[in-house]
Amino acid sequence: MFKLKHLEKVQTRKELIALAKSEGVNLKPTLKKLAYEEELRELQTELALLLQHIIQHQLRVAVIFEGRDAAGKGGSIKRFVEHLNPHASGVVALTKPTDIEKGQWYFQRYIEVLPNRGEIKFFDRSWYNRAVVEPVMGFCTKEQYHIFMSEVPSFEYMLHEDGIKLIKFWFDISKDEQKKRFDSRLENPLKNWKFSPVDLKGQELWDENTHYKEQMFTDTHTVYSPWVIVETNNKELARLESLRYVLSQFDYEGKGSTKATLQHDPNVVYKYFRKSKKLDL
């Protein structure tokens, strides 16, 4: 262990690393964590500047977070909103529809929570529940599914024409990584609440989820509302790169005033490319 007198003499990061090396202490995990926290803070500062731009210019922005169970959607949303003005931002995480809502047009309850002028809203799952989760789990009929899929492009075109900037993220992880995260949730009493009956089927129905996911991309990826894939097993990287992507979509006052890298990594975040052969149900 470091002796206090040795630490007191350290003046620079380089000297600290040299001291740790001489004492046989591995600082790499700590330094990596500190670098992540610093980069995150700078990107969050940029996001705060973007929000001021959204307020000033009365923009309406909706960011959808979809993806595999345990892919890191909630953790990313938390990093997006934790330092934003709550009067101009918010998280939308609707519970299952009520009996009254079940009798309404499927999109109606989502329309009611879309961003107003000068707001950015983050959707922790969205109307796309009906594109993957519901058909896989048997929560909707085939007819309801097909009606929904035929209506989505028109619905999102109306949002586009009405001036709403819609960003659609799909967070993807490997099957092995998903299992690790499920196991971690079960072992951690602070994360037990995140584990649901649907999660129990996540591994078993992996291929079915993949099928409906690809069908969703094929039918709902458009020029005005493209799907943006965030593909990595690294939670921290997913958070940083999704932040960078959102920032890249706007020109705002003070952009780049921090030391943050604002260009997202195209190997991690990229727009969906249509398959040459369409999937058929």
Automatic annotation (TrEMBL):
Its EC number is 2.7.4.-. GO terms for molecular function: polyphosphate kinase activity. Transmembrane segments: none annotated. It is an enzyme of class 2 (transferase). GO terms for biological process: phosphorus metabolic process. The keyword Transferase applies. It comes from the Bacteria. Residues 31-255 form the Polyphosphate kinase-2-related domain. Coiled coil: none annotated. InterPro entries: P-loop_NTPase, Polyphosphate_phosphotransfera, PPK2-related, PPK2_PA0141. Keywords: Kinase, Transferase. Pfam families: PPK2. The keyword S-adenosyl-L-methionine does not apply. Uses inorganic polyphosphate (polyP) as a donor to convert GDP to GTP or ADP to ATP. Belongs to the polyphosphate kinase 2 (PPK2) family. Class I subfamily. Homotetramer. This is ADP/GDP-polyphosphate phosphotransferase. The lineage of its organism: Bacteria, Pseudomonadati, Bacteroidota, Cytophagia, Cytophagales.
